[in-house]
Backbone:
């Protein structure tokens, strides 16, 4: 009984951390959404694999319902951790992408001018 409570508390803490991380990183930009879709796609494939392994183990061995429940809870906990790690790794590797730069280049292409003719660069890091 105590193990289930601890596992649920850890899963809840990881989900809360993931939400706070997403809010700090301004998750609503278009590139982060793509990263999240990629992360969810990877985790969905892992979830299918884990659930098939759990189902096969239940079919071919004498698993009790309680043991199967623990397997599912541990799988969900592992998926939560993996999702956070995968998203963090993908997001950190992709920080170099700047969608506003691509937009500026597309606008310049439409008007047949250079980006420098359209926009004035100022150094805001001072």
Residues:
């Amino acid at each position: 009984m105590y193990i289930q409570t601890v596992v649920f508390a850890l899963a809840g803490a990881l989900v809360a951390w993931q939400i706070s991380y997403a809010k700090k990183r301004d998750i609503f930009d278009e590139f982060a959404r793509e990263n999240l879709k990629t992360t969810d796609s990877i985790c969905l494939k892992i979830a299918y694999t884990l659930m098939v392994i759990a189902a096969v183990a239940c079919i071919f061995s004498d698993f009790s319902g309680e043991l199967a429940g623990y397997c599912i809870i541990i799988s969900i906990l592992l998926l939560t951790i993996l999702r956070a790690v995968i998203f963090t790794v993908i997001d950190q590797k992709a920080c170099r992408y700047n969608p506003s730069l691509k937009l500026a280049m597309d606008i310049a292409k439409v008007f047949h001018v250079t980006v420098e003719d359209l926009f004035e660069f100022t150094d805001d890091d001072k």
User: Anything to note?
Assistant: The longest helix spans residues 30-60.
